[in-house]
C-alpha cells in the first residue's frame, strides 16, 4: 500500500516541483538547517537556553534515530523496491525507517516549542512539514518512515528539553 501511495505522489510531479523539492530536502541534509539555527541561537545570549535545548534534542535524535532505530529496523528504501523510479537526488545509503530528515526537523520544532519560542516554532513547523513531504515526493521514504520520524523526532525534542531541565535543577541544588 505504501508503494501505491508513493506512486500516486509520483503522478503529481511537475518540472517546477522537480527543481524546488530537492532544494527543500537539502535543507534537511545532515540536519544542516537545524544545526545552523542551533548555533545561531547559542551565539545570541538572549536565546542561548533555546540553543542548548535544540542541541540536546538533536543529539538525542541522532542517537535514537540514526544510531539505534535505523539499524535495528534496517528497512529497505522504496527506490530499492521499485527500481523504475528516477530519483532526483543521490541515493541515500542508510536505512529508511525512520526518516532522519523528518526526525531532526520535528526534534527541532518540539525543542523550539517547549523552549517557548512562540513565533520561531511555527515557522520551523512549516519547514519541517515541507522537508517531510519532500522525502515522499523524492521516493526516498515510505509514509510510515515519515510518521516514525515525526514521532521519534518529537520524542527527541521532548527528551532534549527534559535533559536540559534536569541539568539545570541539578546545578541549582
TrEMBL record:
Gene3D superfamilies: Phosphatidic acid phosphatase type 2/haloperoxidase
Pfam families: PAP2 (PF01569)
Location of the Phosphatidic acid phosphatase type 2/haloperoxidase domain: 50-161
GO molecular function: undecaprenyl-diphosphatase activity
Subcellular location: Cell membrane
Keywords attached to this entry: Cell membrane, Hydrolase, Membrane, Transmembrane, Transmembrane helix
Stretches that traverse the bilayer: 20-44, 51-69, 123-140, 146-164
Enzyme Commission code(s) on record: 3.6.1.27
Enzyme class: hydrolase
Example of a GO cellular component annotation carried by this entry: plasma membrane
Membrane topology reported for the UniProt record: Multi-pass membrane protein
Chain coiled-coil ranges: none
SMART domains (alphabetical): acidPPc
Listed name of the protein: PAP2 family protein
Organism: Dorea longicatena
Amino acid at each position: 500500500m505504501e508503494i501505491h501511495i508513493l506512486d500516486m505522489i509520483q503522478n503529481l510531479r511537475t518540472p517546477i516541483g522537480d527543481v524546488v523539492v530537492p532544494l527543500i530536502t537539502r535543507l534537511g541534509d545532515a540536519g544542516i538547517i537545524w544545526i545552523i539555527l542551533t548555533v545561531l541561537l547559542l551565539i545570541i545570549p538572549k536565546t542561548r537556553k533555546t540553543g542548548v535545548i535544540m542541541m540536546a534534542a538533536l543529539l538525542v535524535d541522532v542517537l535514537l534515530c540514526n544510531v539505534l532505530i535505523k539499524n535495528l529496523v534496517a528497512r529497505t528504501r522504496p527506490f530499492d523496491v521499485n527500481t523504475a523510479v528516477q530519483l532526483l537526488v543521490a541515493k541515500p545509503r542508510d536505512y529508511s525507517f525512520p526518516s532522519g530528515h523528518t526526525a531532526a526537523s520535528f526534534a527541532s520544532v518540539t525543542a523550539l516549542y517547549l523552549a517557548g519560542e512562540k513565533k520561531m516554532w511555527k515557522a520551523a513547523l512549516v519547514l519541517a512539514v515541507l522537508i517531510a513531504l519532500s522525502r515522499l515526493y523524492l521516493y526516498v521514504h515510505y509514509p510510515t518512515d515519515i510518521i516514525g520520524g515525526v514521532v521519534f523526532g518529537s520524542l527527541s525534542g521532548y527528551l532534549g528539553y527534559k535533559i536540559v531541565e534536569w541539568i539545570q535543577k541539578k546545578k541549582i541544588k
